[in-house]
């Protein structure tokens, strides 16, 4: 039994570790007293990280933050966050840290690099990674963090910048169940739904599955709408019919990819904002690699991966992924 301190909270750990997978699935029993509003570290202040960290501030948590581009920290600094130079400096000052980074290499760098979190992490620190990354990297990070006496959890999100701003994200959480309550305390400040998915990496697994289905659904909606238009149907009428029939899906009724069908979606704004094609291609890459390692057939997921990758090389990289409709229309003329 070791008594640790996370902020001003007394943290009592009763370790009962056992490794039951190739990646080291460590479970630890722990009991904590009441949480308090001690500083929370935040690393990665991009499109998502900035509004998420703002919501922690709004909920009364002092925020200590950093980003590889110091100018990304300006908005947070202006509303009271403390900015430091490196992830190691964040770890020196906070014992609950959230990371929101583009992809696996950035997460590896922020945790294990020369100025990474693990250089100065305190025992008992709770590390929550909300980036969408390879679940095997999450598992590796958990094993490495555990060697330093820290706890790593994956908590990727569903919902875009709008949901992040309104604290309406859905968090899919993986890691030791005993730590879930501590993670939940912070995640509920930034999201409307927080779902415990299982051991570390499970949050990423759920996120990857969701995004693969989303990608397939969006391509299906885009090609269906395009065919209907070619057959002479009015796109709004076709969307109305689909949405009252068995072809209905989120991409047809909430995020329709055809300009003019819906207001307030990226297709109504030249595919600006929303969820970038590059990020979707990245997530499908994780679906592809995990499907290979688990020998799961994903013929449609693989095809979706290739389509979004080609789009990235044809000028769609920074457009919302629903621009696959525009991509298919342009392909027709070739
Ligand atoms: P972003 O590129 O806007 O922000 C990432 C930030 O991390 C940048 O400011 C970058 O400078 C910083 N960064 C990179 N490496 C760093 C390092 N080693 N140390 C410190 N800072 C570093 O990305 P985003 O749109 O905020 O997305 C973040 C994550 O959330 C991604 O994994 C993405 O897939 C996921 N996600 C995004 C959306 C969305 O709509 N944008 C939705 C759901 C999930």
TrEMBL record:
Enzyme class: oxidoreductase
Gene Ontology terms: biological process: L-valine catabolic process
Spans through the membrane: none
Entry keywords, A to Z: Branched-chain amino acid catabolism, Mitochondrion, NAD, Oxidoreductase, Transit peptide
Every 6-phosphogluconate dehydrogenase NADP-binding domain range: 40-198
UniProt keyword Transit peptide, yes or no: yes
Active site: 207
Substrates-to-products reaction catalysed: 3-hydroxy-2-methylpropanoate + NAD(+) = 2-methyl-3-oxopropanoate + NADH + H(+)
Domain 3-hydroxyisobutyrate dehydrogenase-like NAD-binding: 201-327
GO molecular function, one term: NADP binding
Pfam families per UniProt: NAD_binding_11 (PF14833), NAD_binding_2 (PF03446)
Places the protein is found: Mitochondrion
Superkingdom, taxonomy of origin: Eukaryota
EC number: 1.1.1.31
GO cellular component: mitochondrion
Pathway: Amino-acid degradation; L-valine degradation
InterPro entries the UniProt entry points to: 3-OH-isobutyrate_DH-rel_CS (IPR002204), 6-PGluconate_DH-like_C_sf (IPR008927), 6PGD_dom2 (IPR013328), 6PGDH_NADP-bd (IPR006115), HIBADH (IPR011548), HIBADH-like_NADP-bd (IPR029154), HIBADH-related (IPR015815), NAD(P)-bd_dom_sf (IPR036291)
PANTHER family for this protein: 3-HYDROXYISOBUTYRATE DEHYDROGENASE, 3-HYDROXYISOBUTYRATE DEHYDROGENASE-RELATED
Family per record: Belongs to the HIBADH-related family. 3-hydroxyisobutyrate dehydrogenase subfamily.
Record NCBIfam families: HIBADH
Name of the featured protein: 3-hydroxyisobutyrate dehydrogenase
UniProt source species: Periophthalmus magnuspinnatus
Lineage: Eukaryota, Metazoa, Chordata, Craniata, Vertebrata
């Amino acid at each position: 039994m070791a008594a640790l301190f996370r902020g001003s909270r007394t943290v009592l750990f009763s370790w009962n570790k056992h490794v039951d997978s190739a990646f080291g699935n460590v479970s630890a029993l722990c009991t904590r007293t009441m949480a308090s509003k001690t500083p929370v570290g935040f690393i990665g202040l991009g499109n998502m990280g900035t509004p998420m960290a703002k919501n922690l501030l709004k909920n009364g948590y002092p925020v200590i933050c950093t980003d590889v581009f110091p100018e990304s920290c300006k908005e947070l600094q202006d509303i009271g966050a403390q900015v430091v130079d490196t992830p190691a400096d964040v770890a020196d000052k906070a014992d609950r840290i959230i990371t929101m980074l583009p992809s696996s290499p950035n997460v590896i760098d922020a945790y294990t690099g020369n100025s990474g979190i693990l250089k100065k992490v305190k025992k008992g620190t709770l590390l929550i990674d909300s980036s969408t990354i390879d679940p095997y990297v999450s598992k590796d990070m958990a094993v490495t963090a555990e060697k330093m006496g820290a706890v790593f959890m994956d908590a990727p999100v569903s919902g875009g910048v709008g949901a992040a701003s309104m604290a309406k994200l859905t968090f899919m959480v993986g890691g030791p169940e005993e730590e879930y309550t501590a993670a939940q305390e912070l995640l509920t400040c930034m999201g409307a739904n927080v779902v415990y998915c299982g051991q570390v990496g499970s949050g990423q697994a759920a996120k990857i599955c969701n995004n693969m289905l989303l990608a397939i659904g969006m391509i299906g909606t885009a090609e269906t709408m395009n065919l209907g238009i070619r057959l002479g149907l009015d796109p709004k009428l076709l969307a109305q019919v689909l949405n009252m029939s068995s072809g209905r899906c989120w991409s047809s009724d909430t995020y329709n990819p055809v300009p003019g069908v819906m207001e307030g979606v990226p297709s109504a704004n030249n595919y600006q904002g929303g969820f970038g094609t590059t990020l979707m291609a990245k997530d499908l890459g994780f679906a592809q690699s995990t499907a290979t390692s688990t020998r799961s057939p994903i013929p449609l997921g693989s095809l979706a991966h290739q389509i979004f990758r080609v789009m990235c090389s044809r000028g769609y990289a920074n457009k919302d992924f629903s621009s696959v409709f525009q991509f298919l229309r342009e392909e027709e003329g070739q």
